Amino acid sequence: MSEYSILLPSFVCLFWAVTLLLQRKTNNRSQNMWIVTALVMGISTYIWSVFIAGVSNYELFYKLELVEAFTTLLLLPLLYLCFRTLTNEKSLCWKDFLWFLPAILIGGSMLLLYIIMGDEYAIIYIREMIENQGKLITFTGPVYRVHNFISGYLYTILVLAQIIYILIYATVRLVNYRHRLNDFFSNREGKSIENGTALLVVLYIVLILSLLTYRGRFHYNESTLFVNLLMIVWAVVLYVLGYNVYNLRYTAENFAQDLELSDNKASQEGYGLDEESNADSEDINNLNTLQMRVVPELTRLMDEEKIFLKNDLRMDEVARLIHTNRTYISRIIHEEYHCNFADFVNSKRIKYAQDMVRSNPHLTQEQVAELSGFIHTSTFSRVFKQHTGVTFREFMKGF
Which of 73, 144, 349, 377 could make a disulfide contact with 139, Cβ separation 3.0–4.6 Å? Predict the structure, then answer.
């Protein structure tokens, strides 16, 4: 078995930890959290590599097992904190760090049990565990049974429970974060949401690979080809994970700062979230009345002035043009058009693009995308298919 291939995952983790550490002055909170995560993941993957390669020194094995149990149970809370800092602008609180209790309790319990066994019996015990693939034959005393229960069943249950929770949490948080962005920006380019989505997908793969690696630590040393392939896949996946973390330039913290600047500017001009002109005081308490005033003005801005052609159009800009605030505009768009701000603006852009092609069929896709208010052609293609049900190329065949 190639020593280099089984160490590749550890090298990749170390590479991204060092890379992010070197740019720590410009990192956001999520990237700084990933430095610690990458280092812990590097330790775990290194120990897994040692287990898979085979350990003849049983004293070393049980000591590495202690470290592995602790770092692996640390890794899942760290992944939680990474997604927490990516999608939530609020500071971490003491409740977030309760996630580290299982690692401390499991690691501490295993250490105490090994101390009670003593080195001599711990070595004999762990040799029997390895030779019998985790099953107890000779050592049936309470200390050994408790250790076997904690290191086998309880450890696995906690890991699986944390994996399920983190996957659900990360999915829900990213979906909610995407909705918040869509209610403020007409274009999400540069907002790192694609990197966050990629992180979630890669996280699913990482956790599956973790389970495969852990489950086979007692007998993978006999499957050379499979192990080499598994470690190479591990390394590629971890590289993609690190690459997406490295490109996280916009998080919920940046979004909160944008919202704060927008709201402060709106307040200074007299139509902030907590302010509305006296003339509109009745409208605040009556959404229908507000819609009667705002909808015609919104329609005029879109259909006559075509403000949707501004590729970085934001909700707060529209609100200022109508002399109200973004909360009311967002609410009216949801009530009246049953969509978010981004979908509303993009529907106007796609209709404009279709009309443009009908009158100028010689235009290229890149030209149509740019003239319609899209920053990237790839985004235009995706949104066009989403709103029309056909690709742009299919639509062009009719001309």
Answer: 144
Residue type, 16: W
In the chain, ranges of CATH 1.20.1070 domains: 3-251
β-bridge mates for residue 185, sequence order: 314
Q: For 116-175, how does the pLDDT look when each residue is reduced to its tens digit (9 = 90+)?
A: 998 888 888 888 877 776 677 777 788 888 988 888 788 888 888 888 888 888 889 888
Specify whether domain 3-251 bears CATH 1.20.1070: yes
Question: In this structure, which topology does domain 349-399 adopt according to CATH?
Answer: Arc Repressor Mutant, subunit A (1.10.10)
Residue at 291: amino acid letter: Q
Query: CB count, 10 Å around CB of 86?
Result: 28
Residues spanned by CATH 1.10.10.60 within the chain? 349-399
Q: Are 75 and 40 in contact (CB under 8 A)?
A: yes
| Per-residue pLDDT tens over the stretch 47-91 | 888 877 776 788 888 888 889 889 988 988 998 999 899 899 899
More reliable by pLDDT, 267 or 105 = 105
Which residues lie closer than 8 Å to 145 by C-beta, 6 or more apart?
136
The answer for residues whose C-beta is within 8 angstroms of residue 389's C-beta and 6 or more apart is none
CA atoms within 13 A of residue 129's CA, in its CB half-sphere: 23
